[in-house]
Specification:
By secondary structure, the chain is α+β, with helices and mostly antiparallel strands. The strands form 3 sheets. It has a 7-stranded mixed sheet with strand order 3-4-5-2-1-8-9. A two-stranded antiparallel ribbon has the order 6-7. A two-stranded parallel ribbon has the order 10-11. The longest helix is centred in the C-terminal third of the chain and has 24 residues. The radius of gyration is 28 Å and the shape is elongated. The structure holds adenosine-5'-triphosphate and magnesium ion. Adenosine-5'-triphosphate binds next to helix 7. This is Poly(A) polymerase. InterPro entries: Bact_CCA-adding_enz_type3_sf (IPR050264), HD/PDEase_dom (IPR003607), HD_domain (IPR006674), HDIG_dom (IPR006675), NT_sf (IPR043519), PolA_pol_head_dom (IPR002646), PolyA_RNA-bd (IPR032828), tRNA_adenylyltransferase (IPR014065). It comes from Rhodococcoides corynebacterioides. Keywords: Coiled coil, Magnesium, Metal-binding, Nucleotide-binding, Nucleotidyltransferase, Transferase, tRNA processing.
């Protein structure tokens, strides 16, 4: 915590001088003990929010009160965000189950209503930032053992806030911890209660889960406990589906393998788009098979169905449009490579592959390579070699032309001038024609492009 002395010191003195208690709590304490303290600091206090506001007024660089209804005052100091929440002891509305915010009088009340014991540790911050570790619920033991347990019974806790069931899987994914058997059993019994939670809260946790270092374990926990069946049903539906090569028996296990492979191929930061695409890349398989009972699944059909299913699910989860589009596009494109027998693609096919991927190309490379891992080592090696070949083709073509930005050889103005037409839908059609031509044949001379366009125009009218 030394790294935060410049905040803890003055803040501790400020609260002590006013006669209030101040504790660092929750994720901040957990992460500090794990040696991965984030830059944001969460505190709890017995001071009421208006007192906290008054205390911070002369000290923080900036403060705001969006969380004031929940007793939280937020501020920024030295570029770091701090949140100070008045002790809470929530009651839950028996009908709506929404929390009724009530201020508690003791730290213990506040800690016991938290989600897991490892998130219910505190450090009392005295004057000049002197710290004293407070852990009435055994959070440190849980942390050392790597287990998730609830402060009260898991049933009571999850009944109060079912989101905690999803948070359990999220912490599995972030920390690599395991749920205590009683926690897991309660989730299995209560999984459908997750339906009470708003989509926004669910999605925020899902994102954190899939970005976790142990994302595969987190997804597996979601599926095994039955939570996934409520919020991401297509993923557990892949269990025991046999894929068309009969190579990996279980498309679900294969999806987890590909997710792990994709994570291993990341360079640096966790890649949300790549991870979702890896998890969902074969989402269309079960459906494709149901719709084509005769067997023989065409790649194309699978691509279209898969991308559609991805869109439907991610839209339901209210993912941002760009994120949804990118993930769906990767799922759509990931199989095309399997039509690439070594060197068989025309330049046109290579161009279309690069153009359709656009900015996603580096991720597409990773996704396809992650997918080229079958149980059969020799087949996997041969697939990788074939993909090496495709990447070489792309690089070679990129030396001859600007592959990253394939555009028609004539722009809108040139089209209007040549055809003698005003701006309008016909210009768009001509532009599209030229773009297709450019994809098929590569860069044309201006003369050839004009000749082709005039021939197209004459055939049209
Ligand atoms: P991170 O900020 O890294 O995502 P965190 O543990 O800090 O992880 P937050 O959502 O920021 O998670 O919550 C801060 C703290 O508030 C938690 O550590 C926990 O003590 C408590 N908390 C958060 N959500 C809940 C919940 N649904 N039920 C009970 N306690 C919660
Ligand atoms: Mg936090």
């Amino acid at each position: 915590l030394r790294a935060h002395d410049d905040i803890l010191g003055p803040l501790g003195s400020l609260f002590a001088a006013a006669g209030h208690e101040l504790y660092l709590v929750g994720g901040s304490v957990r992460d500090a003990l794990l040696g991965r303290l984030s830059s944001d600091l969460d505190f709890t206090t017995n001071a009421l929010p208006e007192h906290v506001q008054a205390l911070l007024a002369g000290w923080a660089d900036h403060q705001w009160d969006t969380g004031i209804d929940f007793g939280t005052v937020s501020a920024v100091k030295h570029g770091r965000q701090i949140e100070i929440t008045t002790f809470r002891s929530d009651k839950y509305d028996r009908v709506s189950r929404n929390p009724i915010v009530q201020y508690g009088s003791t730290l213990e009340d506040d800690l016991v209503r938290r989600d897991f014991t490892l998130n219910a540790m505190a450090v009392r911050i005295g004057p000049d930032g002197a710290g004293e570790f407070v852990d009435p619920l055994g959070g440190l033991d849980a942390l050392l053992e790597g287990v998730l347990d609830t402060p009260t019974t898991p049933e009571a806790s999850f009944d109060d806030d079912p989101l905690r069931m999803l948070r359990a899987a999220r912490f599995v994914a972030q920390l690599g911890f395991t749920m205590l058997p009683r926690v897991r059993a309660a989730i299995e019994n209560m999984a459908e209660q997750i339906d009470r939670i708003t989509v926004e809260r669910v999605t925020a946790e899902l994102d954190k889960l899939i970005l976790g270092e142990f994302a595969v374990d987190g997804i597996d926990a979601l599926c095994e406990t039955g939570i996934a069946a409520r919020i991401l049903p297509e993923v557990p539906a892949m269990t025991l589906e046999i894929d068309e090569h009969h190579q990996h028996k279980d498309v679900y296990q294969h999806s987890l393998t590909v997710l792990q492979q994709a994570i291993d191929l990341e360079d640096g930061d966790p890649d949300l788009v790549l991870r979702w695409a890896a998890l969902l890349h074969d989402i269309g398989k079960p459906d494709t098979k149901r719709n084509e009972p005769g067997g023989g699944v065409s790649f194309h059909h699978h691509e279209v169905v898969g991308a559609k299913m991805v869109r439907r699910r991610l839209r339901a989860l209210k993912f941002p449009k760009k994120l949804t589009d990118d993930i769906a596009q990767l799922v759509f494109l990931h199989l095309r490579f399997h039509g690439y027998g070594k060197g068989q693609w025309t330049d046109s096919a290579v161009r279309r592959y690069v153009t359709d991927a656009g900015d996603l190309l580096p991720r597409l490379h990773k996704l396809v390579r992650a997918d080229c891992t079958t149980r059969n080592k020799r087949r996997a090696a041969s697939l990788q070699a074939t993909y090496d070949d495709l990447e070489r083709r792309i690089a070679a073509l990129a030396e001859q032309e600007d592959l990253a930005r394939v555009r028609p050889d004539l722009d809108g103005n040139a089209i209007m001038e040549l055809l003698g037409i005003p701006a309008g839908p016909q210009v768009g059609e001509a532009w599209k024609f030229l773009k297709e031509l450019r994809l098929d044949r590569g860069p044309l001379s201006r003369e050839d492009a004009e000749k082709e366009l005039l021939a197209w125009w004459a055939a049209k009218s």
